[in-house]
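Lab notebook, bench 4. Still working through the backlog of constructs that have no structural model yet. Next entry is a single chain of 682 residues. Request: give me the structure tokens for it.
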Amino acid sequence: MDPFSQDTFSFTGPLEPRVREGITFIGPELFAEDAEGRLLSPIASVFPRHKTIITVRGIHAIHASLMVEYLRHQSGDSSGCAAPGCFDEVCDDAVSLVLRNPYLLIRSDPANMDHIFVADEMLQAFLPKDRIQFTGIHLSTVREKLRQRGESWRMSIPPRSIREIAEYVRSSRVQVGTGLTVYYNAQTGGRFLTFEEFLRIRPLLRSDRNEALARLREILDLFGRVNSWGNRELSFFLPADKHLDFTGIERTVVLLDRPSAANRTDEIEAVFDAFAERFAKAAGSELTIDDDDHAVWRTTMFCRLFDIDEHEVEEWALGLSHEFHLNVKWLPGATVVNGELRFDSAASPKVKGILSHLWNRCEGFASINLGRVESPLTLRDISGEEREVYLVVITKKDGNEHIRLLRHMKWDVLHRIKLGAPLHQAIKATELYRDYIFDRLHAAAELGFPILSYNEITLQEDIPGLGKIQSFFFDRQYVPGIVTDKIPLAYYRRPQFIVDLARLLGAAASFTLVLGKASPRTGNVFYDDGDELIQFDETGTPERLVIIETTGSFTDWTTPLISLLPQCLQRFRSHLNRAVTVGVPRPVINQAIDNFARGLTEKIILLKGFAASASVQDMFKDRDPEPAGIRIRWRGILERLDCTDVEELRRYIASSPELGVKTREAGGLPAGPNPGRRTPCA
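Model written out:
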């Protein structure tokens, strides 16, 4: 039955139907506003079978009722539920819309997306495709359907900027009645209590029992309340698939409220700790420490504040590391139809060029989606660089997915023209720089460093006033793991973790030191800042190091390694500090320092062996010996490596002031020369 059935609808005046492009409209125009700039109707409904769009202000059920009455009016049938005016049939046909200027959101139905896509095609007669988005980012079926169409970019998503997300999370911190701080979901009115905030109550059990009791009572009171929207006033901050009741908090409150509480502190703490242990286990290691600078914690909290299951976010579902989560904007691209690549009308020339290149290189895939990484994946200063980064997901016909990462050349032709170089000079300099990058990659591989292989993508971009110029991208496989500067604080809780990690960090430092990986602007070394990735075994133990980028290599080819080492140790100390923060004892820290030294020195000894081979020594001997050219730099790198005293490096680490071990007996650091000024060991 139609619960809204009535005979009061009058299809005249504001409800008078009008037909455009074969579609019947009832209600105001989409995005029509009142005198104060507010939407006349923020919701609408599409009825694809009846080719009708209703935009009358009210809930979607009213739209269905109005559709039924309109059909009866058209047919002259007043029998109530005769086809095609049956209310149930109309409800099944209805597709709900939400208007958020400038976008129109279609509410996805995972059970019937084909019907949703019919509504989408109707709407495209009146709105550009890039202004029509789909809800359901948290629904795997919806994401898969859009991905198959090459339209991942059309999913409606929350803000992407890491800075904006972190600020949103911070601004959500509130207090209700006591000193308890919780995170407030402005969309639903719900609040979230973190494990760390709960743990702050524990010292109050002895120092301020009244405040401890007040906070625990507030937790119980809010946990038991449901607001007018049907949402719990307070929930525990946990992964989406975890649950926890408040048993244990109640027992603590009962004990605290007794007159004898002052004499039963040990018992109260034991009950509190038992619940805290359950809380920590449910939260998992990555959510037990409040840290909005840490990608996992920040992303998960943001998902809680937007009612998103973080496991259903596209980047999570694809298995990407945490710095990509909510940091990829999927772009209009192309759909594979009958073995052909068909581009969306909104696809940019650059996107078309990238997809065409990949199609020609790996023809035979079933779908392709391309997204732009919105926020930098490193905290380095990248001002003045062309640093576009794209993520490409290719689904093969067998269902397997291949993920690739594309980086725009940071100093390309257009960049050099912006700096005032003539076109011919900019082209030549860019091509030389491209060759230099591949030379560095080749050299690093010959020395046995664990780097990735890269492909080149060259596009022709039409630049107003300049015509067509080349644009270069470097394309590599995406590798799962965690970059060393983004390891969650909670990982360090297990003492052996810092010991195992230290050896890999020492090996990573050898790459920076030997290849002179540094900033061309400042001379500061690039180490532990986004280019080194750690992979883990099934137990969570650091197992393998991968150098995912070679940024800045060959910049410093003369400074003795022992003069560059302190900068690496300063970065390594940040890992030691994190371990100390979570309670790792000093003997374990000392063991980690020894392991760092072992990882560094063993790798350098191995590199000395590689460097002695004729193939490595003669690698660039056919190049011109121009000043600061690849041949001169390579010779400097090899000579510096040859005269490096490995034992001196080991001794320095053992007494390093940067690690706070003890003062070095031999005095201060050796003064290193400026890059390019003299040959080491002279």
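Notes after review: The CA atoms of residues 335 and 341 lie 6 Å apart. Residues 162-305 form one domain. Flag for follow-up if needed.
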